[in-house]
Design a protein that fits this description.
Distance between the termini: 84 Å
Number of strands: 30
Strand content: 15-25%
Radius of gyration: 28 Å
Low-confidence stretches: 1-22
Strand order of the largest sheet: 5-4-8-2-1-11-14-13
Structural class: alpha+beta
Length: 876
């Protein structure tokens, strides 16, 4: 039976976006076991046709089987049982993104085969089976997470419907193809200019992990532990894959030692895609990446670029176990995939690249999550999701950074080996299947013998971040520690919850550093240091106590002013970099929440003038930048900039703007952090002059910019730059030899402060050569620039209809709405609210609420703290 209908056309007639529709969970009348899929891909016409046989088990007598399908034209459909084939009629539910196949005679319980022929265009939306372009030619690529496999073939498109897949692709003879299985055969035809590639049957997996890529990809080849590894890219970028290949080989060997199950999928392909909406996607045995996340020049990549490649590789490869081998049962447990991978990505890097200070990176992840989790519009890690739009919106800081931070806290509480035993017990119990949050914490609790099943629910099922109040008293030589806990909220007007978290604490003092973890599970508690596990050394009381050893706990701390003053002289000598980061970030959060003053923060920040950790300096940059922009006035701004220069200028004088051959990775990263903050926040004229001279020298054939400091150098120079520099940086972006160079120069165009150049930069958003994957990231940069912020918002409003096709790509709308949180005035707030009331984005409703909440908090802070900063500066 021919069914010449295109599913989404119905949705358009109804005025209903499929992404906004309810998600209809499929009935379990039929359960898939295996898919035989054959695609014929016509890159020249940007179309594909397909045939499939889905081998299913019918659970109960029925005449109807419901599948997911979206934007597919059904040519024929039939269901066969025991060789008896019945043509099926097809009806569509556009809102639920489903197709229902109905036959005349009842299907009895047992095996059945669903046969469908279908066709569709390769879409331009960077989801499903879509079209990518590079070097004047077409490519076909898939991106199915979370609910877009249904755009490529009719299927049971939910994570719990796992099955095996056999895939064949008929393509142009000049091209190759990559899929989940290893290549079994490559045969000519049909026709003189075509060939057909057949791939081995995949392991049992969810539909969102199916992968296909078609084009003239070329690959570097390697191996690890007997597993062949390839890094593939377009021919012009193949040579940029060596860093990734080396990293992947070493990471796979590390994971094979960590997990009790060695890499289970036989081969591993890592594919750089010219147009890719996500950063990367963990398709089983065939991981797809944005080019910037996989490719880097071995001779000129910055430390940040190399670390980014390692980070993303380690994250996606961790998913091969956590996500692919064992998959969450439904998207409400997305954090089991993303939170674990965010934690796990740091383990091989910490072991093999200690100079990258992964503990500091982990603490920065936690602080990003805490900043969001303090808002009234946050959500729990585990939260119901019912629509494709809600599922997509759950790919956020809570799932990734908060999920990873909770994993890190539990590992710190249990110890590395006990946690590892729990992880492996979980994987062993659920391999090739699906699992829930409760399955995970139950496995870890049993393996460790510790109450993980009591601790994790309070962090996973409840929204918000705890605040631990800390005071220390000394009576007759005996120290008493008083702790209290409550939900931390971003403003004093927010209401705190009655949640009591089960909080692992590890306490260190001015005289001890090795106390074990204790469980703080009461609203308040007073205990001696001995009761807290702190061993007494010598007579008397310690000067201070720090309750988040190694910044492992997912909570904020509020120390009394007496404790903070006692701690300040010892910050550099007694606290680790991650602890120093946690302390200063907590203090800034208390200022933002109206609990402490900006003067308290600035006094603490002044003690960081000797800071040598680049990660800590980067974290301090944000509050310093905020104070300079929002809490100073025309009368005090120059004095504030002199204060920032007094903090960092000695370090800049030591490091300079050019790298030395003997510099370590962290020294290079430290230089970049100093240049950025000193040049952009401190507005140091010498740094700006040095940056401009360095760029001019590099352009004239002199010494090349140090790649690690280049982003900061270019941004500082651009902020004072003219049209000549704008043209030079634009040209450098267009002719860059690597993705890292391209984005360095492209994003620098948002740093200019000349109004005419800001407008030129904004006009570039609509240029046809700016890829849709990059539009929202590029545009968001303008909102970070105080001078460009208002013009950028005007541009967005004026060009909204033209921007929508670009910025709606995979979370791009969310990035734009988030970027608007940089405003700090009632007029802009009201305008943002009014605009998105008139132009609603249902998938970003929570993000919009968070943005408006941030603007309100900024307005309140500016009102209360600008006089405080004025007084503090006057006293220096």
């Amino acid at each position: 039976m021919r069914v010449p209908l295109i599913l989404l056309a119905i949705a358009a007639c109804l005025g209903l976006s499929a992404r906004e529709a309810r998600a209809q969970r499929l009935p379990t009348t039929a359960l898939p076991d295996h898919y035989d899929l054959a695609f014929d891909v016509d890159l020249a016409r940007a179309t594909f046709t397909g045939t499939e046989t889905i081998h299913v088990r019918v659970a109960a007598p029925t005449r109807r089987i419901v599948l997911h399908a979206l934007e597919l034209k059904f040519e024929t459909a039939a269901i066969a049982v025991a060789g008896q084939r019945q043509d099926a009629s097809v009806s569509f539910d556009a809102a639920a993104e489903t197709a229902t196949l109905t036959v005349a005679r009842e299907l009895l319980p047992g095996p059945a085969d669903i046969h469908i022929a279908f066709s569709a265009p390769l879409n331009a939306a960077l989801r499903g089976f879509y079209l990518s372009r590079a070097n004047g030619r077409n490519y076909a690529v898939t991106q199915f997470e979370s609910t877009d496999a249904r755009r490529a073939f009719p299927c049971f498109d939910e994570p719990a419907f796992k099955a095996t897949f056999s895939i064949a692709l008929t393509i142009d003879r000049r091209d190759t193809a990559i899929s989940n299985g290893r290549l079994l055969s490559d045969t000519p035809g049909p026709g003189p200019n075509r060939h057909t590639l057949r791939f081995a049957e995949s392991p049992k997996m969810s539909t969102y992990l199916v992968a296909m890529a078609v084009g003239d990809f070329e690959c570097l080849e390697g191996a690890s532990d007997g597993i062949p590894i390839r890094v593939c890219a377009t021919p012009d970028k193949k040579a940029l894959g060596h860093i990734a290949l080396d990293a992947a080989e070493r990471i796979l060997a590390f994971y094979d030692r960590y997990y009790s199950i060695k890499y289970p999928f036989g081969k591993l392909d890592l594919v750089a895609v010219p147009d890719f909406a996500a950063g990367a996607m963990e398709n089983t045995a065939s991981i797809f990446y944005r080019e910037i996340d996989l490719l880097a020049s071995s001779s000129s990549a910055s430390v940040a670029e190399v670390q980014r490649v390692w980070d993303v590789l380690a994250h996606e490869m961790a998913h091969q176990w956590f996500g692919d081998l064992v998959t969450m049962a439904w998207w409400d447990d997305l954090w089991l995939n993303e939170g674990f991978a965010t934690w796990m990505e740091k383990q091989p890097l910490a072991a093999m690249k200690p100079e990258w200070e992964m503990d500091v990176d982990a603490a920065r992840d936690a602080d990003r999550a805490k900043a969001l989790d303090a808002l009234a519009a946050t959500r729990p890690i585990h939260a119901p999701v019912t629509s494709p739009a809600a599922i997509e919106a759950s790919f956020d800081v809570i799932a990734y950074e908060k999920g990873g931070s909770v994993m890190r806290m539990i590992e710190g509480y249990l110890g590395r080996e006990a946690f590892r035993r729990g992880v492996n017990a979980y994987l062993e119990a659920h391999r090739y299947g699906n699992a829930t949050s409760a399955d995970f914490w139950t496995a870890v609790a049993r393996a460790s013998g510790q109450p993980v099943d009591r601790i994790m629910p309070s962090f996973v099922n409840e929204p918000g971040v705890p605040l631990v109040d800390v005071s220390l008293a000394c009576d007759a030589g005996r120290a008493q520690l008083t702790l209290g806990q409550q939900r931390f909220t971003a403003s004093t007007s927010s209401s705190a919850s009655g949640t009591v978290w089960q909080i692992p604490l590890a306490i260190k003092t001015s005289t001890t550093a090795d106390a074990p973890f204790q469980l703080f599970d009461a609203p308040s508690q007073t205990l001696s240091l001995a009761q807290a596990g702190v061993q007494r050394t010598g007579d008397g009381c310690p000067a201070w106590a720090f309750v988040n050893k190694n910044a492992i706990g997912y909570f904020r701390t509020a120390y009394t002013p007496v404790l903070l003053r006692a701690m300040a002289p010892d910050v550099e000598s007694h606290l680790t970099p991650s602890e120093r980061l946690s302390l200063v970030d907590d203090e800034w959060a208390l200022v933002r929440a109206g609990r402490h003053t900006a003067a308290d923060f600035l006094s603490l920040a002044a003690g960081y003038r000797g800071e040598r950790s680049s990660g800590v300096l980067v974290q301090i940059d944000e509050p310093l930048r905020f104070i300079g922009e929002h809490l100073t006035s025309d009368a005090t701004r120059e004095r504030y900039q002199r204060f920032v220069r007094s903090l960092l200028r000695p370090l800049y004088d030591e490091l300079g703007i050019a790298a030395a051959a003997t510099d370590t990775d962290d020294r290079r990263a430290l230089r970049a952090a100093v240049i950025d903050t000193l040049g952009n926040v401190g507005r140091d004229p010498d740094v700006a002059r040095d940056a401009a001279r360095a760029i001019e020298a590099a352009r004239s054939g002199g010494a090349a910019l140090d790649p690690t400091a280049a982003d900061a150098v270019v941004t500082v120079a651009a902020s004072r730059g003219d049209a000549h520099l704008f043209d030079a940086l634009s040209d450098a972006a267009a002719h860059a030899s690597s993705p890292g160079e391209h984005y360095r120069y492209l994003y620098s165009l948002a740093a200019f402060e000349d109004p005419a150049l800001i407008q030129r930069g904004l006009d570039g958003v609509l240029a046809p050569d700016l890829r849709a994957q990059d539009a929202s990231l590029y545009l968001a940069r303008f909102f970070r620039n105080p001078i460009a912020r208002a013009p950028a918002w005007t541009f967005v409003k004026q060009h909204w209809d033209a921007l929508v096709p670009k910025v709606m790509v995979f979370g791009g709308d969310r990035r734009i709405v988030e970027a608007l949180g940089a405003f700090c005035d009632t007029g802009a707030r009201d305008d943002v609210r009014a605009f998105f009331t008139a132009h609603p984005l249902p998938a970003t409703s929570r993000v919009l609420a968070q943005t408006l909440e941030r603007i309100d908090a900024c307005i309140a802070l500016r009102t209360s703290q600008t006089p405080v900063v004025t007084t503090w500066l006057a006293g220096r």
